[in-house]
């Protein structure tokens, strides 16, 4: 584990496990690098180097007032790769982290990148517009902002239910996982959490996806209640030149149980290929 200070003076926390070809994980909102621990251990156990950072404002990283926007998230990721001198890297992004990965490539290219994995990722655009009728109405994201601002503790607890699909009939609910989600979420600074909602919902990643020129695995559950697949993976797979689309029938946004095992197997196969 370590930290580094970005060009604008923000301290970024990261984990660095194992040795070998680097696999760099970008987490979703409102979580931190711990949400990738299962996959980080998996790849490190299989001869890869797992690197995962807490996005600015999240987890153990600094909480600056400014810079809580997608371009800066991408630039922070670029500084991490530069500081650790990572090359031939595999970038893995979940949800908002998928937007971060796409924007990184849009701004910095693929000179350090060999492959990309986008899991339940927000690109190309979550917001419903005339050109994107599959997106969600602005009122949905206004509701997220209102929940975070009014009682973020209760909001995060309630949000975890749909995040993991525990509100579906017959779902096996993990109380411990919900508590972990709540704990990670409560580590996010209020300003960063609030600002990030606009970033994952209103940023258009279409041009960024068009700049991805390395093999890309796009994985998504078709029962994702947070980032619906029709507005995300189905469109992204058409925009990325060398994309493989993997759909998990019945899977939620946060993969659990057999869904997580299936993704882990696909992840290993993809990074080994």
TrEMBL record:
Residues 22-254 form the AB hydrolase-1 domain. GO terms for molecular function: hydrolase activity; peroxidase activity. Gene3D superfamilies: alpha/beta hydrolase (3.40.50.1820). This is Alpha/beta hydrolase. Belongs to the AB hydrolase superfamily. Bacterial non-heme haloperoxidase / perhydrolase family. Keywords: Hydrolase, Oxidoreductase, Peroxidase. Pfam families: Abhydrolase_1. InterPro entries: AB_hydrolase, AB_hydrolase_1, AB_hydrolase_fold.
């Amino acid at each position: 584990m370590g930290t580094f200070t970005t060009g604008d003076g923000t301290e970024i926390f990261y984990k660095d496990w194992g040795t070998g070809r680097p696999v760099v994980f970008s987490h979703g909102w409102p979580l931190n690098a711990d949400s990738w621990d299962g996959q980080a251990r998996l790849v490190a156990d299989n001869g890869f180097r797992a690197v995962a950072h807490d996005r600015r404002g999240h987890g153990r990283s600094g909480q600056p007032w400014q810079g809580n926007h997608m371009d800066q998230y991408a630039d922070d990721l670029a500084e991490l790769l530069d500081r650790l001198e990572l090359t031939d890297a595999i970038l893995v992004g979940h949800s908002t982290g998928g937007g971060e990965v796409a924007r990184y490539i849009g701004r910095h290219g693929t000179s350090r990148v060999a492959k990309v994995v986008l899991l339940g990722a927000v690109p190309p655009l979550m917001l419903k517009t005339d050109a994107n009728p599959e997106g969600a109405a602005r009122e949905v994201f206004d509701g997220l902002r209102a929940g975070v601002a009014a009682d973020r503790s209760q909001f995060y607890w309630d949000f975890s239910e749909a995040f993991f699909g525990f509100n579906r009939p017959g779902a096996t609910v993990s109380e411990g996982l919900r508590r972990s989600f709540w704990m990670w979420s409560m580590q996010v600074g209020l300003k960063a959490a609030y600002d990030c909602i606009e970033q994952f919902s209103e940023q258009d990643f279409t041009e960024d996806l068009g700049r991805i020129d390395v093999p890309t695995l796009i994985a998504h559950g078709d029962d994702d209640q947070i980032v619906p697949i029709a507005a995300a993976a189905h469109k992204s797979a058409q925009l990325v030149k060398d994309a493989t689309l993997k759909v998990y029938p019945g899977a939620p946004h946060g993969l659990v149980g057999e869904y997580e095992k299936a993704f882990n197997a696909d992840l290993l196969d993809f990074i080994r290929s």
